Amino acid sequence: MTRAATRPPSRNTWQRQAVLRTIEAAGCHLSAEEIHRRARRAGRPIALATVYRTLETFLRTGLVESAHIGDGLVRYGLASDHHDHLVCLGCGQWRPLEGCVVPRPRSALTRGFVVTGHRLELYGYCAQCRGPQGRGEARP
Amino acid sequence: MTRAATRPPSRNTWQRQAVLRTIEAAGCHLSAEEIHRRARRAGRPIALATVYRTLETFLRTGLVESAHIGDGLVRYGLASDHHDHLVCLGCGQWRPLEGCVVPRPRSALTRGFVVTGHRLELYGYCAQCRGPQGRGEARP
DNA sequence: GACAAAATGAGAGCCGTTCTCATTAAGAGC
DNA sequence: GCTCTTAATGAGAACGGCTCTCATTTTGTC
After folding, report:
1. Among A20, B19, B120, B125, which one has the highest count of C-beta atoms within 10 angstroms of its own C-beta?
2. Is B41 found in the same domain as B102?
3. Do residues A55 and A90 both lie within one domain?
C-alpha cells in the first residue's frame, strides 16, 4: 500500500520529529500551546512559530487533523478515518471515539444539501471527572 | 409564578432588539462581526462590544446558542433543542438540520464516559454551491 | 421629574495565531 | 568529507477576533 496523496514533509528535522512524537504520546488532541510546552519539556527548546508551521505542514500532508473545541482553541491530533470524538466537560480532554455512530442522513432531512463528511462531538464526563458526586447537565 | 431558568434580559434596549431581530432574520448561524454589520445596516449604528455583550447575555439566558465552524469564528443562532447542523464548504453557510440523526452510542464504545449531549456537523455543499460542475471531496 | 443602576460606546488591551526576515542546517551532487 | 542550494527555523513584530475599562447614556421605578 502506497502513501499516495499523503506525501511526507520534504525535510526531516528534529523539531518535526518532536512535534509528531508529542502528539503520538498524548493519545488525545492537544492545543498548539500544549504541544509547544510538552515538546520543550521533552527536549531542546523549539519556537512556537515552528510548532504552528509544522502543524500546518502535517495538516497539509494529512498526518494530523485539527478541530475546534468549545474554548476557542484549535486542537491537533493524529489523523484518523472518521471524526467522532468524546469531549469531557470537566477536564477538557478530547479523544477519538472508537467507531462511528453517525448514519447517513435521509435526503428528506438535508433538502438538496450534498453531505460529503461529518464531525460529531459527544459531550459528557470522563471516568475521572465524574467522581463521586455524579454530575449530569447537558451543553450545546 | 417565577420567571424560571431562562429569564429574559432585565432591560429592553433597541440594541438588544436589533441583535435578536438580526439573528432571527438570518435563519442560519452568523458570526458576531456579521451580526454587527447587518444590525448596523438595518438601523442605527451599534458598537461591536455591545453586540458581543448582548450575545453573551442571550447565551446566558438560553435565547441563542453558539458554535465553532472550521474557520475559527464563533457563530450565533437561535437556540434549538438539538445540535445537528449542515455546514456548506462552499459558502460557509451554517444551518440547523431538521431532526436529529445521532443515536445513543453503545457504552462499549464510550468506555466509562457518561454522554450528556452532542453536536454534529454534516459537511458538504448546498444546492447553490454545488452548481453545474458537482464537487465532492470530503473534509474533517 | 428625580434617581439608581443597568447598558452602551469608544477604544485600549489581551491572546492565539500568522508573518517577516536573517540565520541555520538538511539533503543532493561531487 | 566538502560545497552548494534552499527548505526550515528562531525571534519577535504584526494581525485579528474578542474582552475589558470607564465615562456617558438610558431604562425602569418611585
Report:
1. B19
2. no
3. no
